[in-house]
Design brief:
By secondary structure, the chain is α/β, with parallel strands linked by helices. It has helices spanning 6-19, 60-73, 77-80, 136-144, 160-167, 180-192, 212-215, 237-245, 248-251, 269-279, and strands at residues 25-29, 41-45, 49-54, 86-91, 99-104, 109-114, 117-122, 150-154, 172-177, 200-204, 220-225, 230-231, 235-236, 252-262, 284-288, 305-310. The protein is globular, with a radius of gyration of 20 Å. It is an enzyme of class 2 (transferase).
Length: 311
């Protein structure tokens, strides 16, 4: 990270802030390596709060210069014409990823909208706030392709895909995640959108111990697989993804679809295509979803890979 690059950070962030619409968006994405010296910084517009995230420990001179730069933002015309209430700096490289308030009043919980849907974020001491913004177009696709369908949402986290599916008139959604706390947030996200919870199930469950709970709901018209790259003691993407893919033929309806995702920068889309061919050869690769334009990447294979397959 270089202090000489901070004017570029200001230019892109403030320009994006001046044109931002009502929904949540990323303002600056340095992690795509398109901005030299800013590869470990992101900036998000969270509808009243601006969150700057540092993903690598900075040198002391850079941190001081960054804090000074952030304070200067608050006196610019772009900032003053926005409805921003606070400016937050998250140290993602530290344990528990603490957040400090640079300006304004820090609200630890924040309601945001995306594609017309409402989600609650935690902006306290969690590494992740509750919604991965690079998956915006994935949730949009699910909303547009869920009508009258039974949906299985694996590694559901806070149930963003589930909310999108019910908004798209899905018949039923089954959410699976090992962490019951994120499923509770998922319930809350559904309630925020006025959804009928009798159409949704939430299971705090390790899929590698048993598939019985999943199979008892019958076959699914759409299966979403969006796993972490690595979760100590439970999931490693290069050796465990295959165990899921080989289960798909028995879980999918005829002509059922799969949205399979990988966010490991070291793995290409071909990783998914090859493993699907090996483990579930009756599924055909259809297309790869675009990533949002606000997530530029020097290498398309380094960013999010969200692929559609069909039985």
């Amino acid at each position: 990270m270089h202090t000489a690059s901070l004017p570029i950070l200001s230019q892109y962030t403030l320009n994006a802030l001046s044109t931002i619409e009502h929904e949540t968006r990323r303002l600056f994405h340095g992690r795509g390596r398109c901005f030299e010296g800013l590869e470990h910084i992101t900036v998000d517009w969270l509808q009243g709060q601006v969150l700057v995230s540092l993903f690598k420990a900075p040198a002391e001179d850079f941190l001081l210069a960054l804090q000074d730069t952030l304070e200067q933002w608050t006196s610019t015309p772009q900032w003053q014409s926005s409805s921003t209430r606070s400016l937050l700096l998250q140290h993602r490289y530290q344990q528990n990823a603490p957040i400090e308030c640079i300006w304004g009043e820090h609200h630890t919980q924040q309601l945001i909208t995306e594609n017309g849907l409402t989600f609650k974020l935690d902006l306290d001491r969690n590494q992740n706030s509750g919604l991965f913004l690079d998956m915006r177009l994935g949730r949009k696709w699910v909303k547009e392709n869920s009508q009258h369908k039974r949906v299985l949402n694996l590694f559901s986290y806070t149930c963003g895909f589930s909310v999108a599916a019910l908004a798209g008139e899905a018949e039923y959604v089954v959410n699976i995640d090992m962490a019951k706390s994120v499923l509770n947030r998922g319930r809350e996200n559904h309630r925020l959108n006025g959804h009928d919870l009798s159409q949704v199930s939430f299971f705090g469950h390790d899929i590698f111990k048993s598939w019985g709970k999943i199979k008892k709901f019958g076959q699914y018209d759409l299966i979403i697989i969006d796993p972490p790259t690595f979760q100590k003691g439970s999931f490693a993407i290069t050796k465990d993804y295959q165990k899921i893919l080989r289960r798909l033929p028995e879980l999918l309806t005829q002509k059922g679809k799969v949205l399979a995702c990988v966010n490991d920068p070291t793995l290409s889309a071909q990783f998914l295509i090859d493993n699907m061919k090996a483990e579930a050869p009756n599924l055909q690769f259809l297309s790869r979803l675009d990533n949002p334009a606000e997530f530029p990447d020097i290498d398309s294979e380094s960013g999010l890979k969200a692929l559609i397959f069909q039985a």
